[in-house]
Amino acid sequence: MTIQKDRSMNNLTKITLFLLLISSCSFNRFSYTKTSSGIEISLNGKKKRIEFYDDNLVRVSVTGTKNAFKDSSLAVIAGTKKVDFQIEDQPGELVLKTSRLILQINKNNGSVIFLDPSNRVYLSEHPDALPELKDTLVSGGHYYAIRQTFQIGKEEGIYGLGQFQNGFMNYRNKDLLLVQANKISIVPMLVSTNNYGVLWDNYSHSEFHDGAGGMSFSSEVADQIDYYFIGNRNMDGVVSGYRELTGRAPMFSEKAYGYWQSKERYKSFDELNEVVAKYRKNHIPIDNIVQDWRYWGEGKYWSSMYFEPENYPDPAENIKKLHDQHVGLMVSIWPSLGKSSQIFKDMQSNGFLLNQDHWCGGKVYDAYNPEARKLYWKHVQKGLFENGVDAYWMDGTEPEFSNTDDQETTEKEILKVGKTFAGPAGKYLNTYALETTEGVYQGQRAFTDQKRVFILSRSSWAGQQRNATVTWSGDVSANYENLKKQISGGINFCMAGVPYWTHDIGAFFPSGKGGLYPQGIDDPAYGELYVRWFQFGAFCPIFRSHGTGTPREVWQFKDRNPEYYRALLKVLKLRYRLLPYIYSEAWQVTANNYTLMRGLAMDFPQDKKVYDIAGQYMFGPSFLVKPVTKNMYYDIPVVPDAIPEKYLLTSENTPGLKATYFADKELKKAVYTGVDKEINFNWGGGGLPQGVPENNFSVRWEGMLAPTESGSYKIAFTADDGLRLWLNNKLVIDEWKNQNSTFYYTINLEAGKKYPVKIEYYQGKGGAMARLGWFTPSDQKNNAELTKTDSVYLPAGNDWYDFWTSKLYPGGQTISKDFPIDIFPLFVKAGSIVPFGPEIQYAGQKSDDPVEIRVYPGHNAGFTWYEDEGDNYNYEKGAYNTIAFSWDDAARTLQIGKSTGQFDGYEKNRIFDVVLVDEQNLKHRKITYNGEPVGVKF
Questions:
Q1: Are 382 and 315 in contact (CB under 8 A)?
Q2: Whole-angstrom Cα distance, residue 915 to residue 445?
């Protein structure tokens, strides 16, 4: 009996092991099903779906076996296509083939290798780091935390992913946090010199990593892994695939490519018109002026969409005055709405507000709700568009609640929302800007097709280009390092597929938060930085000056520094002469998914020296641009950081200084008492304690200074208005007047001692700026010896003309030379045709002067001239004209093709001044063109 029992148990064990083996084999067995657009695979407890969106474009999705695939996407608007693909079921792998793509799928682990038709590998899913799906609970819903890892080539360069202020160009061996913030705009699209792209279609807190273990994307909240692979012959083709997935970029008005004058802020319609009048009086080109916040009145009416009547009366009439001067108006609007505004009340009554307070005292509307977006547009239309406003500056679109100075704070504040109309805020973390810009774009397009939409946004996401949206780099501070970082940030943003990007010329903060120039344009050192930043701006897709703390208008430099003024005019007029070139390339952006601001790797992928160059780029097909990002004339001012709170003590020995705020300039009407941890604020309004007015207030700070190092200290106080400073019971600074300066006082201090300190400050009008800083004995900050020399690398594979001298240089070398204040490294690719228009004051201005067609010989060249009605959508119906120019270098002949197409206002007959660029002299041929083909022989 005992033996029999043992045998029975042994048999039971064998049966159990056999069943487990069957189950295990079933669990790991590879199987697939063909669908109308691709295949579905089951393997290792997961399901994988591969769908063709074109013959070179596939979507890869991975989820758990028991889950259904989700098909919705905020970014991708394209659907699958009927693609002719073959399936080859081979031992060990399943192969899918189209005319332009091969996929090899490993039957053991499900990993995919993407190849071109010649079997060259584009990209591989990592075979040893399989897709990760980890269960997570978010807002009561079940989701996955996900990761997908890839293997990439050792020498390829990778770019895109949005705009980061890190100074990097190539993201090999880099880590990036994909979360929005002021100065960081995410577009989760990567492009490679190996001619592929990956669009990571997840909206939550995500991370990008490249290192020894492979390249990976991960996200915290997901329904499934979702990414799109795009393969093509070049990086332009990859970007084109991205836009076919997520939407093409429509044309802006011709005026949008001119100059935008902005500042924080103009305070009346009269001031706006006076500023424009001075531009016209001084014959300085301008096309647009910008009205920043508070045109709606008090903070409780924040972003009401309606002009307050005292300073902004009769908006339609006053905006027409701007239009009569051939200048358009853009105004600032926010997703945050003041509690007394009608739009807030309408949103509230409909339940369209997010459950999180904004610093203005109101709330942010739920842009994920399509009905809320329609209501938002309704107020924009009635209060702004119907009064003649031409463009919308959609600020704070991360969205901002308390502040968005860093990614951690931004994410934390958004997560407080809990749920949006679409679902958990954590799931939709990065996509608010896409949704709110879409509502305005679609609203205006539905209202009229006679005016093109233009939106400026501080945040972005994949697909936002379809909403006629430009992203700017946020509230940066004035120093050369930040200027340098704008370049790589803008290039990578555009390489991610969103073609329009800009920045605050001269930086938003001239001082404070890293800005070094408290005197603004009255400081010649800042003027030098401003000119260099302006030169960079003139060769960006959108050319816009903006900031706080100091005037920005070009004519402000006329008397302050004539040399700077001439330099600004020189590049501004050049921008306007290049409008035919820029507008024609903008058409290529719309019609052929082109990229105007181009990383060097896009055009010279065979020259690996360009892969990591962060300070140069191509502007269109012809211009190589390298902005000057170092000081050559004036030492960089050294402005100390604010004294940290650990060195400041109240009378109770707590960190900081006792602060008493007064509702007047005479320190009499105390309205708030508290503790300020440091004295460091620079703001144009808002953010003050309750009861403190925006203008004409004062503050008294009192406490102790507690150094930890003995020696000589240089105390520095920066103030925009009145200042008194007592140190160790002695009045050492007494400047009780309107000014904008940094004042210094040197004193010996002993470590361990406490020194009484008292500060009185008053603020008049135009923003509040106050900072108490110091240089400790160990601070050593020296300026390098100044030189006017800069260097530029000329990519191999082409020759290059110095634009300023016409001297020809072979590619593949670095050129060093002097660049005075009105000159910066600007080269033209040999084998280029560039149209130069006449000098004009605004886009579309008529001139009797001929258009100059410059030919830069050395290679064959082509260029397509484009023109249309300038500011409507008739071009979508075919109302435009093109002329093809081609240069035969061997025959030394320019062929001008037939004028193709027409539109209202089209002029068939014109004079071209054809110019052959030569190192010795320019050779001119004036011809009369009547729309028929003609050749010009040199």
A1: no
A2: 41
Class of residue 53 by CB neighbours under 10 A (exposed 0-12, middle 13-18, buried 19+)? buried
CA dist 281 and 555 (Å) reads 10
Please, which pLDDT band fits residue 9 given cuts at 50, 70 and 90?
A: very low
Residue-wise pLDDT for 667-711, tens only, equals 999 999 999 988 887 765 556 888 888 888 999 999 999 999 999
Residue whose token pair is 């503050």: 699
Question: CB-based contacts of 345: which residues, under 8 Å, 6+ apart?
Answer: none
Helices (H), 310-431: 315-324, 342-349, 370-383, 407-415
- Burial classification of residue 667, based on how many CB atoms lie within 10 Å of its CB (0-12 exposed, 13-18 middle, 19 or more buried): middle
Q: What angle do CA 209, 214, 217 make, to 5 degrees?
A: 40
> Is the dihedral angle over the CA atoms 403, 406, 407, 409 positive or is it negative?
negative
DSSP-derived pairing of the beta strands 391-394 and 455-457: parallel
Q: How many residues are recorded in the chain?
A: 938
Q: Are the C-beta atoms of 547 and 506 separated by less than 8 Å?
A: yes
Q: Give me the domains of the chain, ranges plus CATH numbers.
A: 294-313+333-450 (3.20.20.80), 645-775 (2.60.120.380), 796-937 (2.60.40.1180)
Average pLDDT, the chain: 94
pLDDT computed for residue 129 by the predictor = 96
Q: How far apart are CA 387 and CA 137, in angstroms?
A: 48
Helix (H, G, I), strand (E, B) or coil at 258: coil
The predicted structure's pLDDT at residue 284: 98
Kind and range of the H or E run holding 659: strand 657-662
Alpha-carbon torsion 540, 543, 549, 551, what sign? Answer: positive
Question: Which residues fall within 8 angstroms of residue 388, CB to CB, at 6 or more apart?
Answer: 315, 316, 319, 320, 323, 329
CA dihedral of residues 788, 793, 799, 800 (deg, nearest 10):
-30
Contacts of 774 (CB under 8 A, 6+ apart): 640, 643, 713, 714, 715, 716
Sheet holding 768-775, edge to edge: 680-683, 768-775, 711-719, 741-749
Q: What is the 3-state secondary structure (H, E, C) of 544-578?
A: EECCCCCCCCHHHHHHHCHHHHHHHHHHHHHHHHC
Digit-coded pLDDT (tens) for 882-897 = 999 999 999 999 999 9
Q: Which residue is listed with tokens 């003139």? A: 538
Q: Name beta bridge partners: 617.
A: 625
Measured distance CA(32)–CA(93) in Å, rounded: 12
Asked if pLDDT for residue 20 goes beyond 80, the answer is no
Burial label for 690, CB within 10 Å (0-12, 13-18, 19+), is: exposed
What number of CA atoms fall less than 13 Å from residue 673's CA on the CB side? 6
Region at 864 (left for phi over 0; alpha for psi -120 to 50; beta for the rest): beta
131/202 Cα distance (integer angstroms): 15
Tokens encoding 334:
């926010």
- Beta-ladder partners of 473: none
Q: What is the pLDDT of residues 310-351, one digit of tens each?
A: 999 999 999 999 999 999 999 999 999 999 999 999 999 999
Is the pLDDT confidence value at 779 over 90?
A: no
- pTM score, whole prediction: 0.90
Q: Comparing C-alpha atoms, which of 622, 682, 550 is closest to residue 864?
A: 622
Q: Tens digit of pLDDT for each residue in 535-584? A: 999 999 999 999 998 999 999 999 999 999 999 999 999 999 999 999 99
Distance of CA 727 to the CA centre of its chain: 44
Instruction: Summarize pLDDT for 349-379 with one digit per residue, the tens.
Output: 999 999 999 999 999 999 999 999 999 999 9
Residue 24: pLDDT band with limits 50, 70, 90 = very low
Q: Residue 711: count other Cβ atoms within 10 Å of its Cβ.
A: 12
